[in-house]
Specification:
Layout lengths: L6 H8 L5 E8 L3 H22 L4 E8 L6 H11 L3 E5 L6 H14 L5 E4 L11 H9 L4 E8 L5 H18 L10 E4 H9 L7 H8 L4 E6 L12 H15 L2 H29 L8 H33 L16
Parallel strand pairs: 1-2, 1-4, 2-3, 5-7
Antiparallel strand pairs: 4-6, 5-6
Helix pairs in contact: 2-3, 2-5, 4-7, 6-9, 10-11
Amino acid sequence: MTPPQSPSSSLQATTQPSPVLVLVVPLFNEATLIARTLPQILQQVRADVQSRTPGAQVLLLAIDDGSRDDTRSVLHDLALHDAAIRFAGFTRNFGKEAAIHAGLRLAVDRFNADVVVVIDGDLQHPPQLVGAMWAHWCDGHRVVEAVKRSRGDEGALRRMAAGLFYDAFSRASGLSLSQDTDFKLLDRSAVQAVLQLGERSRFFRGIVRWLGLGGARVEFDVAPRAGGASGWSLSGLAGYAWRNVTAFSSAPLRIVSLLGAFGLLLGVVLAIKALWDKLSGHALDGFSTVILLQIIFSSLVLISLGIIGSYIARIYDEIKQRPHYVLHPDDEAPPR
């Protein structure tokens, strides 16, 4: 017969600590927005989460990616007025991927997060969706991904560029990221799995998909920015897309072999034509064919060297083993 438990031991067995949700918000030159948007995000998420899980703690961790405006001072003021708003900053601009990586690391190591949600600070990721993502986590899902149902007021050129990138990435890596975003919920075990991958060329969306942790998906329509314009130029997006493709797949290296095969085939065709013209007496004087061949093959060689150079650059970055980011010295102190 099982001995009866004392009231204190029974209470200890059933009482569990309240879960901690940390909202990770990467920021770069957003001083004009965040004084209004960050409290709004925190208030909305806190209300939705605590309505389902009373006692749950919600923190907002802003990562200043080396902003050159007053973003840091605005974050300092917000943190003084609300203890649930925390921030950390980089010594310079390391990029959004580094900001996400730092946010995940600090969320679990410094704030002991049970759940982390990566969300933008310009309200294009609707904070009211976090409540539904939290509900999926409560139902047992380790990862909840928010995917775009529509791309909002995005221009036609950007839509086409995004479609080309997702198609190229899917073909090269075998991982489908169509309409995917950085707006994701990960539980502590999923965050630790992401952090265990040590590569320097990080792509958060691709890493989560590569891990294959499954989970739920929720759809949303991209809202207009709360103000200002996106800091991403088309050239910046093109470079970002190329880095991500080369970081996740060696398929572009096979293009070099295809270009070589194409050049060989073209050379054979031109050689046959030149021999036929010679034998039939229709050969023309001049260097047109030679010049054409030089242009074609020189272009193929340079394209091939560029592709190979991209992978050499990836290797160079990896073997240096530099940290993903450097925190501002003022942010090295432990949290309040």
